[in-house]
Amino acid sequence: MDQAKDFYDVLGVPRSASEKDIRKAYKRLARKYHPDVNPGDAEAERRFKEITEAHNVLTDAEKRRKYDQFGRAYQHAQQSGQWRSGDFDDFLRHFAGAGGTGFTVGGSFGDIFGDIFGRGAGPGAGRVRTEARGPRQGDNVEHELGISFEEAVSGAQKAISLTLADRCPACDGVGGTTQTCSACGGTGMARQGGGVLNLNAACPRCQGAGREVTGRCKECGGSGEVQRSRRINVKIPPGVDGGKRIVLRGEGAAGVNGGPRGDLVLIARVGEHPFFRRQGADVHVEVPVKFTEATLGAEIDVPSVRGSAKLKVPPGTRNGQVLRLKGMGIERMDGSGRGDQLVKVRLVTPDRLSRRQKECLEEIAAEWTDDPREDLPA
Ligand SMILES: [Zn+2]
Ligand SMILES: [Zn+2]
């Protein structure tokens, strides 16, 4: 079991060792194996990480208690072949906060994890680092979507081009090349005067990550993001109204550390129409009607958003009267059918009459004996 050496053995202390003894043992070994003392020595670096892990766990009373408990359970299970060594290795890496790739351990490890990481971990401990490196969903992006009146009525398929933040392909979102932190030698711990490690504080240079970014990525200038034009197909449902939000899942900004993309939220801005005026699902229009049509009644052709429609003008229709064309409005987005078209009548009076027209009207006038003004005050 080279991958998972017993933490007590690593530090060379008995299981009954006091916290003070453990710290003392660690300092002694840390001085010996610190990467600064052994530049370029991979074995020393490995040993240094090993003792650091052991130290981090055994000097934390809660972690130590869990390790004591878990370590024995592990040994037992190992003998009966229940757990693979890889699992345990993963566990140890997270447990000691040496920086893993994510919570990939399943099964019975979950409870133990929850317990350990649910409690506050100290500065520079695994929990903090793991979260900072964990996958995170990209931001939601809001964008206005200009739609013509007609597109809003009938629905449409539209291709739009958007410039959105994407993970820089050159540096994979890191912002540059990384190397072992020069301040802490990869331990993630702060150093005090004389090269003594401060075992409780995170390294200020790398914030405890153990690696630092060197050399700015030329592609993204160090931000880790590039602006990329994306072509997105949008299906505009019929009946969409101004201010309506169309959500396209997973079309927003790129995720961080392998997280999913955010959403793209398109806010509809619907254009005006020179003739039709929209109010929700209803459409309002004003139509000129001859006074003869209005008086005698008629069936006239009027434009609607659904094409030409027949409108019955009942006899005796007055100026300004509103006639309704049922179901000739716009689709309601809740699926409850269509609105109506409301036609406001604008009476048209001829300003020039032929001789014959005049004679006819004079005959009508002579016959029109009741006075519409008889009720007015004198
Ligand atoms: Zn880059
Ligand atoms: Zn550092």
Summarize the structure.
By secondary structure, the chain is an alpha+beta fold. Helices cover 30% and strands 26% of the residues. 24% of the residues are buried.
Describe what this molecule looks like in 3D.
It is a single chain. With 378 residues, the protein is α+β, with helices and mostly antiparallel strands. The protein folds into 4 domains: 7-133, DnaJ domain (Helix Hairpins), CATH 1.10.287; 136-171 and 228-271, HSP40/DNAj peptide-binding domain, CATH 2.60.260; 176-216, no CATH class; 277-367, Urease metallochaperone UreE, N-terminal domain (HSP40/DNAj peptide-binding domain, Sandwich), CATH 2.60.260.20. 30% of the residues lie in helices and 26% in strands. It has helices spanning 7-11, 19-33, 42-58, 61-80, 85-96, 109-118, 126-133, 149-154, 291-296, 355-367, and strands spanning 141-147, 156-167, 176-180, 189-191, 197-202, 211-216, 225-236, 245-248, 264-270, 277-279, 282-290, 298-304, 307-313, 322-325, 341-348. The protein has a 4-stranded mixed β-sheet with strand order 10-11-15-14. Strands 1-9-8 form a 3-stranded mixed β-sheet. A two-stranded antiparallel ribbon has the order 2-7. Strand 10 and strand 11 form a beta hairpin. It is rod-shaped. It binds zinc ion (2 copies). One zinc ion binds next to loops.
